[in-house]
Records
---
Amino acid sequence: MAEKATLIVGDQRIELPVIVGSEGERAVDITTLRQQTGLVTFDPSLGNTAVCKSEITFVDGERGILRYRGIPIEQFTNKPNFVEVAWLLIFGHLPSRDELTEFSHQLTDNELLHEGLKHQFQHIPVDAPPMAILSAMLNNLACFHQEFLAVEDVESLTAAAARLISKVRTIAAFSYRRSQGLPLIYPDPNLRYCANLLHMMFSLPYRQYIVSPEVEDALNLVFILHADHEQNCSTSTVRTVGSARANLFASCAAGVSALWGPLHGGANVEVVRMLERIHEGGLSAEECIRLAKDKESGFRLFGFGHRVYKNYDPRAKILQGTCERVLGSLNRRDPLLDIARKLEELALQDPYFVERRLYPNVDFYSGILLRAMGIPTDMFTVCFAIGRLPGWIAQWKEQHEDADSRIIRPRQVYTGPNQADYVPIDQR
Ligand code: SDX
């Protein structure tokens, strides 16, 4: 017998179905609530509201579990292959060898930007925010690939996905080169996904950048760990824009804008800036913790806390270990890693953080790892976006293919003035 929820409001009593997910999560289905009672529910940041059913990613915030299409993320750490995980998220199964080879070829065939798009980089200010460039250029792709504005079948979706996933690297690298006053370096079709990005960022016309296996694996892992995270702020944005049947480029460009926020993907930049302030002596770790607890300070311990994880973010655990491994392979130490560990230790023994179940999240160590690879701080959130792009595409596709999907249009509780009359200007 299917479970029901009973709602009693005034003299009205209604029963609402309870939906049960494949991992036992339960939700009260209120899709007929307003029609039956005239009532809406009030949940401003949607912390208590499921906006869709999804088969892509499972997060258990209480137990610190993250699975892509059922596979725990820990199982991707050995020989990490971001392109393989992108396929898994978008198409729902691990690719066969032929599927992976074919998709890799599609990425290689689409790594160049149209020369018209490339020339636009010459007119971008050298200090332009990289996330502004990325959002604009993803939208701009729609001008040069108008054949993918209407994605009607798997072939066109695959082709559009290949263009986005491949070209996002080139756009990121070109924006970095522009900011450094360096000549643009074209992609190398003989390099794998992550090695090609680092080549376009760090090679010179007279000297090719050669990526070490440890760094290439680490960047694959960073992108895998950022690849999807169910209905986070930027993914919900992509779904909302996509629900209006806006094209995939516009939907992902909107996702970039949401991800830019310091409470979301922009936190990885704020973490490193916070750690640098401590390292430069401007702030002690203890002072950081005190400020984070002081509501008046407006300070947050960036990289800590999460809407869903009330346990250690499994991604942070993996990233911390990878920091050590990569720094070791490069024979380097980074004082920021020691400071981050000290901050974590202080926070995890402080009642303020313990009571609120605030733990390190994905952003706490990711910046230190990217920094170890030579990637500058202002490119960290761009790297987050490169990783998250397959997740956005997968979620957009899942919604696009859902015959029951409708435009997302929340209701409100109006608290403004009751009816008033217009007053002519000479009587005001
Ligand atoms: C990402 O949703 C996702 O899945 C996102 C993400 C993904 O993969 O897409 O995981 C990626 O965005 C990770 C989060 C990165 N952001 C940060 O690190 C910024 C710092 N963290 C916070 O701003 C905060 O924890 C959020 C934004 C992440 C979550 O905010 P919530 O769920 O709205 O929590 P809240 O602000 O209501 O906090 C609850 C309490 C408050 O204190 P009280 O009012 O109960 O006294 O915890 C406090 C907050 O003040 N708190 C913090 C804190 N985070 C929460 N206090 C100090 N420092 C912090 N970092």
---
Amino acid sequence: MRIDIISVVPDLLKSPFEASILKRSIDKGIVEVHLHNLRDYATDNYKSIDDYQFGGGAGMVMMVGPIDRCLTDLKSQRNYDEVIYMTPDGKTLNQGIANELSLKGNIIILCGHYKGVDQRVRDHFITREISIGDYVLSGGELGAAVLCDAVIRLIPGVLGNETSALTDSFQDNLLAPPVYTRPAKYNDWEVPEVLLSGNFPKIEAWREEQAYERTKKLRPDLLDD
Ligand code: ADE
């Protein structure tokens, strides 16, 4: 998979890809991530990418011109499956969207800033608008990092143990069951006996029941879906 991220502060996006699973996925050649500075597509001496909004009002709007030039440049080199815009008024990211995007080949992620982008960008270039939650960030960069992490870890070969992404919370609309590791007894806190039993059908049944009970208690809304 190739991910091109367009931003006015691309440096914000460097560190998430320089450690742990995301770095490994890049080192293994499973994912390519390319950061693009939108200011490189400005045409004036000030490298302007935003301007005042028509009709008045506080806050600058990202102009269509630099975004058009950047997208046209990228699209002239390869086909893209999606051009995603990170924005608080997009569809809230969930595991289903992450699963879907993990199957794509090439995607572009455009990070919004200020008051957002000129509506014509959304109307003519964007295929999908994604929010990472009902709160407003300073820009789309941290949202883009969250999206990339959620998507990349699902690509086959990224996680050492292929099944571990399948048993994540949300994959079946249930939260994950509790997990334990050694020691089996710490102070007087004991690990549930069934997990030490070696009886795998019984362990599986226990995990399913725990996942259901935990979801009912913490996120009953997931059971409604
Ligand atoms: N940009 C600003 N706020 C955002 C959010 N909640 N999700 C995605 N992009 C954003």
---
Amino acid sequence: MTFCEYKPGLEGIPATQSSISYVDGQKGILEYRGINIEELAKSSNFLETSYLLIWGGLPTKDELLDFEHEIRYHRRLKYRIRDMMKCFPESGHPMDALQACAAALGLFYSRRALDDPAYIRAAVVRLLAKIPTMVAAFQLMRKGNDPVQPCDDLDYSANFLYMLNEREPDELAAHIFDVCLTLHAEHTINASTFSAMVTASTLTDPYAVVASAVGTLAGPLHGGANEEVITMLEEIGSVENVRSYLDDCLQRKAKIMGFGHRVYKVKDPRAIILQDLAEQLFEKFGRDDYYDIAVELEHAVEERLGHKGIYPNVDFYSGLVYRKLGIPTDLFTPVFAIARVAGWLAHWKEQLAENRIFRPTQIYTGTRNASYIPIEQRQSTHDRAFLAALIAE
Ligand code: CMC
């Protein structure tokens, strides 16, 4: 095969076949295993949706009860993981802490029996169960407090908010948080999922697969955008400043955070649901000052960039929901990871079922047949002032 056209970012190039989720970016449709996201948001919950994604079908009542029970049982962290977290700097980003903890799980459960269904099941359960505990524990520890142990009486989402805020959450708040997890659980072959698949294709352990995906999700062009949206709304400061802020960004060719998507050319269906969830929360707990700025920005961006298919993506309204739930801004992306672990694990399983190691090709643009120059005759290719500044840093 001599297929040589290079597409930056692999845009439009199929890198796999998958039956996990489906996106129609022109019509704004997202389905998990064929079921529309609106329907799942309304009728399912995060653990049932995770089961659907990972095992390919909706569970029966007993299957779901067993799955929930196993996850409840495995929520606690080994004390050595907690001790390791105590050594992390408080100023470190929680995504870095999460990536380190996810990878560290592999030290405790290192048997790589990838052809054993019991091993696969245990890894799925442990990762889904422990990741929220890690996120909440890091939050409390960096404030100098002991982590709160998971509460067996609370379901998955209520338990996370309980471990994070040290009190039982309001019922509506816990329900809305659970819907947010469902919305973020899976989204075809995005950057972090691709990175999970590449790692999985080497037949390494599932903890390394998730750790590599967490690292990829952390970037501001991917999961990190939800955090940047709040920083941007903060910077804008008032509805009156929206248009001048936008003009300035467009002039500088800066990206407006929470807008645009490689696949969606209309408003992301998840953004529509998240906006509605934000409004439900505002009705019960009071309006967020940034909401009016966000709505005005959406109108202004639509006027200026709608013709390019630039509309709010999933990250635009999620931050406003999380703020109202009392989640600190730098935990928005870890919360995204709590949800997306379901999708990563589904792709891990799918990859294992028909594995071939990823090994794409490249188009070489460097020099050929260069001579080896003895060290005394070389001239530096680096700017010395730049290097001195780097060393001083
Ligand atoms: N603000 C202003 N212009 C934009 C934006 C934006 N947010 N996004 C795309 N464009 C313009 C871009 O300038 C380019 O214009 P032109 O053709 O005139 O040069 C055109 O739209 C295509 O942009 P691109 O960067 O080539 O598109 P991409 O498919 O490579 O990037 C994206 C997609 C999501 C990385 C990008 O839209 C972006 O950086 N958005 C802001 C960050 C963000 O919100 N990320 C979250 C993505 S959704 C959830 C997730 O993946 O985690």
---
Amino acid sequence: MAVVLAGTAPLAGQTTLRQAAAVRAIPIGAAASADEYGSSDLLKNPAYANLLSSQYSMLEPGNAMKWDVTQPTQTTFNFQPGDELVAFAQANGMRVRGHNLCWHTQFPSWLAPYAARATPAQMATLLENHITAEVSHFKGQVFAWDVVNEAFNDPSGSAVPGLRDSIWYDQPGIGQSGTGYIEQAFRWAHAADPNALLFYNDYSIEGPGAKFTAVYNMVQDFVQRGVPIHGVGFEMHLMTNGYPSAAGLAQNMQQLAALGLQVHITEMDVRLPVDSNGNASAANLQAQAQVYQTIMTVCLQQPNCTAFQVWGVSYADSWIPGFFPGYGAALPFDKNDQPTAAFNALVTAMQTTAPMLNANYVVNAAGYQGGAVAPGEIVTIYGANYGPANLVDYQLDASGKFSTSLAGVEVLFDGVPAPLVYALAGQVSAIVPFGVAGKQQTAVQYQYNPGNGAVASNTATMPVTAAAPAIFAFDATGSGPGAILNVDYKVNGASNPVAAGGVIQVFGTGGGAIVGGATDGALAPGAAALATQPVTATIGGVAAFVGYAGAAPGLVNGAMQVNLTIPPGLAPGPQPVVITVGTAASQKGITVAVK
Ligand code: XIL
């Protein structure tokens, strides 16, 4: 009977890595193979395909997008294995990382002899054509590329290591000095797919040290000079020797965050000594699990750690036994596709690491400005990375009010639960309780499934202000045509402009307290003025008569409606609208169409 249970069946009913990651708003990936070397196609192996698609929400071709596969001769490209992996990913709702475009090894057999005779100009043409062809081919399908891989030497002592010799750098190189060839590769990749995220990827840069410093210096220079780079890949091929420490890893991520760069953990495995059957000791497997748990926990605690990937689907396709003789057992699934202690550790990290709440990521839902919050302001909170995997819209409770609990999410202001507009892991919209009025500051906390695990966020203290107005954009981008109705209740816009003297209804939030008070989460029963005065407005820079400024009858309390009269003398077309409540003005860039 045990034979019947082979494959993925024993995992039925158990949380998958993919499910655990989905509620943390982070993709979890694995290196994957198709038939790139003409051997059997792993994607056609049902057990492999099932494990890959059920456990992971992202894949990266372990080899299929490298030079030896993609440019088999100088004049031909082969993207078929990569296409197969992309098609598999798309069929299974998975993202694809591309790997890699420029490396010192894994060449097609013609390339090294060619480079030995080529001029730098010829090498530059070759690299440009390759990057352009490959990135163009996968444009829109690969969300992030490792553009350049492993370009730095390993450190000897504390000296900052230099660049590794390679056909692209100096043998003969593409005719650029220093990191110029790397910069050039990023520029070519960006030109071919301006929407792809571009990464520099390397190993032994996970903790502080000379090699991280070398990479940091390069990417800092790139950022300062506007070279298109979006992140650094930490390969994370580890052992159980304590490198990197949690604090060291967090420090490196924070240094890159300060440059505005993301970090992807791209190739994690933790190799263990194994016996001739490929088995590791129970103690080592336990130590390995701790390493996985630590790395995942740090990633979830650092806002710029935006992807987590392991290098292989299970022991059966891991590169470790082939490259590190005597080692193996490096991944969260064993050679029979069974979850290991490392699997449990990853799930535990994802289920128990507290979500983050960062006051800088609490912004007005209409204008996206941060800073102080106002009573009744509809805010969007980004980065609270534990919540429902799919967006859950507001719900009315038994008393007809917006519910303060949505799919397990709650947002508390001084302990008072806020009405919620929608909830999604990493992006939640809440209405600041009116009770913050008159306070200097408010303590904000985010919770997911309170009482069902240790998942309350830290508490973030935010200043309170009387009003923080903003106007909703019609397309929710925060600028452009506003959420504005003409007097006939039709949406204002280029095809429905309003004439001078016409009255418009402008919708926003952040107007602050309401005269007579407002019940949190209730629909506004009728007209009621903003408490903070005066309310003034300009359209096209000209003062506009404010006929009404207050609650938006029929919409949830916290939505603001302002009725304005179009002043005479404006040029036809979009004209900027600004509403000022007390001393606080709405964002620039919202327009009304005037005729
Ligand atoms: C490895 C693959 O897993 C092997 O199949 C291949 O033979 C050699 O390359 N760093 C990287 C990866 O960036 O591309 C490497 O992948 C592992 C080390």
